[in-house]
Amino acid sequence: MTNLATVAPDAAVEDYGYRPAPAGVRANMIFSADGAAGFAGRAGPLSCPADQQLLLALRAYADVVLVGAGTARAETYGPVKLSDEHRRQRVELGFGPEPPPLAVVSQSGRLPTTMLGSSPQPILLTSARAAHTERVAELPCEVVVCGEDSVNITDAVAQLRGRGDGRVLCEGGPTLLDELVAADLVDELCVTMAPVLAGCQPLGQAAAPMAAPTRLQLDQTLVDDTGYVYLRYRRP
């Protein structure tokens, strides 16, 4: 049975059923009420403080944060930062107190400078062809080759798991989420529905078509007093 609840005024959304993260890939996305994944090329304009706090908390429960390079550039990604409380929770969950690294999927190696030179060092998931370019060779990050001419997302996730990063948090964008869905790699999907209309906001590129939709089970529905709805789906 789906857990339907109203978020208490003095509670945080993260306190409702998000710990611990599932083994595998957990994706976290936000959409407008009319289905847009962003506004003016970014997800930020759709968000709210509670959604931002949830994003930070989900990072604390993951081994690694997976993101597409386009989203990393658009949102000006920097290294993952944890509050003292999230560090405490991370230790309780069996992780160390250090924040998880960012793993960025990129064929071009174009990463935001705000992400570079940080600790922990970011991970670049790229192809063998791109790994030999001058741009990638000069990046201050760990390079993991996943595929020959383009990034193979199945191989990328397998290599992250092989490193011991079994709890992967994907933060999008839509192109990366489509690739994970098409490869049947999403184990849990956390969705924030923003009470706004954003119109047609084309983001990313469509992945190869699927033969049939993948069925998920709705585990939880939360509603806060600002009208935001937080949904959590998992494989049945």
From TrEMBL:
Give the pathway annotation: Cofactor biosynthesis; riboflavin biosynthesis
- The answer to keyword Nucleus applying to this record is no
Signal peptide: which range, if any?
A: none
* Protein's UniProt keywords contain DNA damage: no
Domain Bacterial bifunctional deaminase-reductase C-terminal residue range list: 25-229
| SUPFAM superfamilies (UniProt xref) | Dihydrofolate reductase-like
One biological process term in Gene Ontology: riboflavin biosynthetic process
Task: Offer one Pfam family short name for this entry.
Answer: RibD_C
Q: Return the Gene3D superfamilies for the record.
A: Dihydrofolate Reductase, subunit A
GO molecular function terms noted in the UniProt entry? 5-amino-6-(5-phosphoribosylamino)uracil reductase activity
**Could you tell me which PANTHER family the record lists for this protein?**
2,5-DIAMINO-6-RIBOSYLAMINO-4(3H)-PYRIMIDINONE 5'-PHOSPHATE REDUCTASE, DIHYDROFOLATE REDUCTASE FAMILY PROTEIN (AFU_ORTHOLOGUE AFUA_8G06820)
Q: Which NCBIfam families match?
A: PRK14059.1-1
Q: What is this protein called?
A: Bacterial bifunctional deaminase-reductase C-terminal domain-containing protein
- Source organism per entry reads Mycolicibacterium poriferae
